[in-house]
Amino acid sequence: MQNNQGILLESGTNELEIIEFGIGHNRFGINVMKVREIIQPVPITKVPQSHQQISGIIELRGEVLPVIDLADSLGFPPSSNPEQDKFMVTEFNQQKIVFHVHSVAQIHRISWEQIEKPSEMYQGANGQVIGVIKLNNEMVLLLDFEKIAVDINPKTGIHLQQIQKLGMVSDRANKRLVIAEDSPLLRSLLHETLTEAGFQELEFFENGKDAIQYLESIVSQGKAIEDEVQLMITDIEMPQMDGHHLTKRVKDDPTLAKLPVVIFSSLITDSLLHKGELVGADAQVSKPQINELILLIDQLAL
C-alpha cells in the first residue's frame, strides 16, 4: 500500500479512514494519514543498548528509520506466523517510524462518532488505546502511537524547558483559551506548560463536539465570541468530532468565525497542511512544538 494520499478524505467531513491490522488475535487500527506505506519485512540492523522495544534500524530509500516491535510494546507474544508479518512506515510528530505488526487486513471508512472513548475501568489513565470501534462484530482498538513513541523516547514529547526561553508576556493571564484534546496525558501537559507560560483562563474539552457546544452556548446568550474567548487550540484526532470538522464548524458560523483557531497535532506534515487550510485554520503547529504554539497564541489572541 503505497502513496495513500489519493484516498484521503475531504477535509471537515468528520470521517476518517483507518488501516486495520493484527497483533496476535487482536485487531487494531491506525489513521491512514499516519501511514506512508506498508512493506514486507526487511533485514534489521541491531543497535547496541537501544530501547528494548526498538528492534533496530532499516534503510528505506536512503533514510535510516527505527523499527518498533509493536507486539512487544503492547505486551503481546511474538508473531506465530512470521511470513504474514508487515512493516508499517509511519510519519507523525515530524518523525518517521516503522512499526512491526503481524498482519494487515483492510481500510475502513468510519465517522469519528463511531469511536467510543475507552473506559479507565479497563485501561487506566496511562493506557495506549484512544478509541474503540465496533466493526463486523469485532472490536478494533485505535492505538495512541504518539504515546508509544514518547514512552520510548521522552524527548519527543512536550517539556517545560521548551518555553523557558520565550519569556513572559504580561497580558497572557487575560486571554481565555479553549483547548480540544482527547489525550489525558496531553491535556495535562498542555495545562502545565500553558500555565507556566502565564495563561490562566484555560477551558479544556475531550473532543470537538463538547468544544463546539461550549462555544455555541456563549453566543446563544447574546455574547460576542471575541469578548469571551480569544483563541481555540484543537487536536485533529478526537472521538465524536475531529479537529478539522470542529474548525470548519467554527469558521462556517458567522457568530464564531472571528475566533482564531490553531490546529496542534501530530498530523501536521507538508503533505497534509492543505487539509487544515481548507477548513479555515488560522495556523497549524506540529506536536510537540509548544514554543511555536505559544508564539502563535501571542500573535493571534488579540
UniProtKB/TrEMBL annotation:
**Cross-referenced SUPFAM superfamilies, in alphabetical order?**
CheW-like, CheY-like
* A single GO BP: chemotaxis
What's one Pfam family here?
Response_reg
Query: Which residues are annotated as modified residue 4-aspartylphosphate in the UniProt record?
Result: D235
Tell whether Phosphoprotein is among the UniProt keywords: yes
Stored InterPro entries:
Chemotax_regulator_CheV (IPR024181), CheW-like_dom_sf (IPR036061), CheW-lke_dom (IPR002545), CheY-like_superfamily (IPR011006), Sig_transdc_resp-reg_receiver (IPR001789)
Identify the keywords attached in UniProt to this record, alphabetized: Phosphoprotein
According to the lineage, what is the superkingdom? Bacteria
Domain spans labelled CheW-like? 15-154
- List residues of the Response regulatory domain: 176-302
PANTHER family from the xrefs? CHEMOTAXIS PROTEIN CHEV
Task: State the name under which the record lists this protein.
Answer: Chemotaxis protein CheV
Organism in which the protein naturally occurs: Ammoniphilus oxalaticus
